Input
Amino acid sequence: SGNPSGSGRFCAVDAYRRAIAIDFADSRAYIGLARAAQLGLGAPEVAQMQRLLGEPLPKARLAEIHYALSILHKRHGNDKQFIEHILAANEMQRQERPGARAFYEQTFDTLEQAFSKEKLASVTGAPGYEPAPIFIVGQPRSGTTLVEQIVSQHPDVTAAGELDYLRQVMRPELTAMTGQPFPLGWDRLTSEQFAQLAQPYTK
Output
């Protein structure tokens, strides 16, 4: 989205820091901060994350803190620490969700069915909006974060990290429109329905 001053990124960083001030163990906020801010490894937030790893937090939160630290170490070229934190995060996620692999396989099967070449080619879509969003999509650990960092170096682009709009807002609205499990049925929407889904995102 257009933002020549880059103030959107600073607002996001401030918001993540306010969230951490309210809940010092807000693991999602640490992930957002690691993505949006140019943190050095000596930053107080990094020390805070290291301390939290020794606290009796839920495994899901500990996994996210490991993931946030992996982002920082990768950015600073510390391959050993990056791998250690990624492996620790993955192990905790496996312990927390033992059936996750079967769930992900089913999810990818559904996505493959929903977004076939034929369905993508048949859709009209919605009219354009300004500022125009740039979507960076890909498999986990495929380099999407790096692409976001590269693209966001342009003065007219502000990176927002991974937003939950699709899951929290668009998913229930699309399901209500189609009457099918998300994201099935999206290809039958009219241009007006696409516009209805897209408009809140641009705001």
